[in-house]
Amino acid sequence: MNNPPDIAQDPAEHEEYAHGVQQHVSRYLMVGGLLLFFTLLTVALSYVDFGGFFSWLFHMHISPDGGRKLNITVAIIVAAFKASLVALIFMHLAAEKRLIYRVLIFTGFFVLGLFWLTYLAWYDPISR
Amino acid sequence: MEIPYTISTRPDTGLWNAKVGIWLFLASEVMLFGGLFSAYVFLRLDAQPGEWPHGVLNVPIGTMNTAILIVSSVTVVLAWAALKMRRYRAYWWYMLATILCGIIFLVVKLTFEWPPKFSHYGVFLKPEAREKYEQYLGNHRREEKGLDPRIEITGHLENKEALTDSNIKEYEIAMDPANADPDNPSNDRAHFIPLPATDKIAKIEKEDVERIDSFGPWHSAYFASYFTITGLHGAHVLGGVLVFLYMWLPVSKKVYQRNPEHLANRVEVSGLFWHFVDLIWIFVFPLFYLL
Amino acid sequence: MDASTSLETHGEHHHEAGHEHEHHELGFWRKYIFSTDHKVIGIQYGLCGLVFLFLGFSLMMMMRWQLAYPGTALPIIGKWLPYIFGANSMPDGKMTPEFYNSLGAMHGTIMIFLGVVPLAFAAFGNFVVPLQIGAPDMTFPKVNAASFWAFAVGGVIMLVSFFVPGGAAKGGWTSYTPLSDISDKGPGFHLVMNGQSLWLIGFIFLITSSLLGAVNFITTIIQLRAKGLTWMRLPFFVWAQFVTAFLLLLAFPPLEAAIIMQLMDRTAATSFFLPAGMIVNGAPLHISGGGSPLLWQHLFWFLGHPEVYVLILPAFGIVGEILANNSRKPLWGYKSLVFSVLVIGFLSFIVWAHHMWLTGMGSTVSAFFQTTTLLISIPSVIILSAFFISLWGGSIRFNVPMLWVTAFLPMFGIGGLTGIPLAFNSADLYLHDTYYVIAHFHYIVAPGTIFGLFAGVYYWFPKATGRQMSEFWGKVHFWPSLICMNVIFLPMFLQGMLGMHRRWYDGGQGWTLSGEHIWGLTGFQWNTPISWAAWIMGLAQIPFIINFFWSIKHGKKVNDNPWEATTLEWTAPSPPPHGNFVTTPVAYRGPYEYSLPGREKDFTMQNEPVDPAERSRRMAEPALVH
Q1: I need a labelling partner for C409 at 20 to 30 A (CA). Which of B206, B232, C189, C570 fits?
Q2: Could you tell me the pTM of the whole model?
Q3: Does pLDDT of C608 surpass 70?
């Protein structure tokens, strides 16, 4: 998962270097195709009634509301997968410097804190 | 005076300045969109049954726009790779493709996506009047099946003058299929290719109406967040296009001729921004179009 | 351009004197107004910040008249104010309730976002940080200039909002919804040209400015530290600015999101913060509803709490520098100070709901936030204790910067300790929104942060100008300010405990306070001494203003290191030229090497190499090694 190396100062090595980058190019194209495929997949999956499917599969009752939640979960999983492809390959996060990981870990922590703590405060039993 | 590490990397961090800068900026963008998405999540969780519209956006167009953004993400990373291989001509074409993708995205948004919303109306009925319009709502069947009730009749407003003229006592709505044929199970879920409003007209007395609004941001918390988030996202796309335009113009060729790595770095950081914009859209698309 | 091209390609950058000639051609406008030099931008921020501080204080001086003598016309200036703010705001020089609310909201906004943040973070950060880390400039000089100009535009929009119909924002500096969503909405409502909408738009510019600044600061500190200047050799001030920048970077965007949403509520008729069924002026509001006022509070305080650390951390940094310098001792517990600042920065993101005890949170969540709130007091206490211990056994020089700093310590202590009752929701039920809260946070920000800022102005003035401000007039500035600050804010604790609400237009005159007295005065009667102290403090700033401008041209000329300090900024010429240092600095030691044993002078600068004799001594005594 290494990123293309910085270009060699020596022009003689340039050919080899360009070849190295070329390999990355094919990976970028593959990831782009994958992303397009998953876009179509998520559209298709949104028309699947997961509630009905699972109640048939497990012989249990799932309300339409519960079914919708299943569809939401599936769509979020697909979106998260696509997003991580973009982040890891296109944005080179698969192999990045430690400093950038640190910044992003803190950011992720705080954004989750924003959601999670607000959620807790929102649904704490005294107010509602 | 020179600022160190604008092009070469600082040994202990292994990074050049703009790369640190853009990632910090993206961190703040994560928090910005995090705040907006938190509004979406909490307002949706708070919505009463039937309040949150479903399937009101055009899925094929949304899918196409998603694909356009993904393609542009690929082309921008190819543009960068072309610079790394010192192929300026290829870079120029890939960058042009990226810019065109961004422009198409915006044009689609501003012609096919947003404007039709403002001429499509929803009539919210008072709770006590909903029984009266059962033929358009189909709530008896929906209740049996455990679906959320319909509280609104949507479609094309035939007598727009009724909005302002208090002498007119009724709204005449050419209903969308879901209201025109409410008990048909195929209308429980929006169709992939959206059907136009039917020519079946509902006459709704103003006395029974809680409020009538077009599908603008004022329609509901859903459309409020839709217009705000996609609007801000669109502003990011526009910003990205302008930056790319600068890097595509002959001005930047001079940078390339002076030091190709300098332009490659610039394309890399603006590309990171562009991928981020793409990444936001990857979440926007299912949240607003599909769910 | 060829010379610079070859330099760029190599990427290795040595400071070359021959390279300077390009910049001498800059005209007045490029050099002093649209400059990209971090020092000029810092000074621009500083001057604007000081002006805004005085402006915000002036608004408060007007309010203090209304509080002490409610319903009477302002003396002297009362005749002129209707011409400035309009006859609707100040009929016959008497303040209307609406105008009083505007003054209150704008006092808070201007003081925090246009006064203290630009001064503490942007001005001192811009001027001092690159010098202290031995950098030639910020990493992104143009972004730096853009940051200043975004701030300037935001400031102008805020000022303009005073003169639109209806006057400036009236919803308090917190702009709570739904009140702020609907304020000014009446006959003749203009979508943009009204106080609250302009407040929101101005804020977007201010947030942009802070974000650009924060990105720049963090990158600069990470990338441009001089050779040998490791993280644990950074001056404490740089650490404080580093954490502050992170707070701005990550806490401001959610507020920006909220501000965009409130602007949408006001201009595009959305209902992000409006629940259904709102009745305004007796008529139901035509809105979709489905929004939540509490959403605003969460997003606002997600910034709001880190913001108070944005206000105080730079002051901590300044205090640390001056304290070490004037007690001629290393700062005690440097590492614990650094880690305390980091912990404060981290915790400040997860305490915000303690501003919202009265919103009906349940016990689980309030237990969480009470715990984190009390946890965050620990690093604050560590910092203050370390400062006090640094004084112990030092040979203290009481020059003007040091006077402000020594006053800062107990003032901040009072402010911090009186915050502890507010951290408990049971006590806060009683004290919420009273003058007690006002007194608590003003003790931190006014005699706390602003004293720190004054100390910084006196301390780094010689670096910026090559001249020193007058010591005598500095003391004339200091003593009345210290006394007046306490006469203003100490009685407010009493007023608050009597139950006086912070937003009363008549200063509590209409409320008899159940006949309770403290030291013979009712809560309302305490307003009079407080107000007089505020006006006297206004007068006490005049020596500072004169001293400041007079000293630029006529102050005592001093050498490059007048305070005999150790950090790198004092190795540069005063004022530093474009590019800052004559020779690229290299750091060999920690930031506060005062009174090293076996040395002729009592300070050893960071760029002085360690000689063999010293090295062997250090080996024997590892505690000295940083």
Answers
A1: C570
A2: 0.94
A3: yes
